[in-house]
């Protein structure tokens, strides 16, 4: 009886549909830009490769100079979504930077880290 119950629970778990996020890329390099053009933007595209609606619960940047905006509505299986990232280097010390954005979803992979980097030079 216990074996049958265990077998049924595994079958039920395997039958549950799950969302899964797949990014086109996880790092964006802005390259070199000057303090005059301190605000840089990029877009990370992703696809729900799972078989249930994907929900982004949050996207949090490692500092206030980096702001992510993401698709708020559920993304159906096979559909695409975006996370737009704005980096503002105004008032920052020129040089190389690398910032992270932590994305949390209801998908199989619950947490993904994205990165933006570049080199800001003096005017």
Summarize the structure.
By secondary structure, the chain is mostly beta strands.
Structural features, described:
The protein is mainly β. 11% of the residues lie in helices and 51% in strands. It has 1 helix and 8 strands. The strands form 2 sheets. The protein has a 4-stranded antiparallel sheet with strand order 1-3-6-5, with no helix packed on it. Strands 2-8-7-4 form a 4-stranded mixed sheet, with no helix packed on it. Strand 7 and strand 8 form a beta hairpin. The longest helix is centred in the N-terminal third of the chain and has 14 residues, at 2-15. The model is unreliable at 4-11 (pLDDT under 50).
Number of β-strand runs: 8
Number of helices: 1
Shape: elongated
Secondary structural class: mainly beta
| SSE ordering | HEEEEEEEE
N→C terminal distance: 75 Å
Fraction of helical residues: 10-25%
Give the arrangement of secondary structure elements:
Elements: H1 2-15, E1 21-23, E2 27-34, E3 39-48, E4 56-61, E5 66-70, E6 80-88, E7 95-105, E8 111-121
Parallel strand pairs: 2-8
Antiparallel strand pairs: 1-3, 3-6, 4-7, 5-6, 7-8
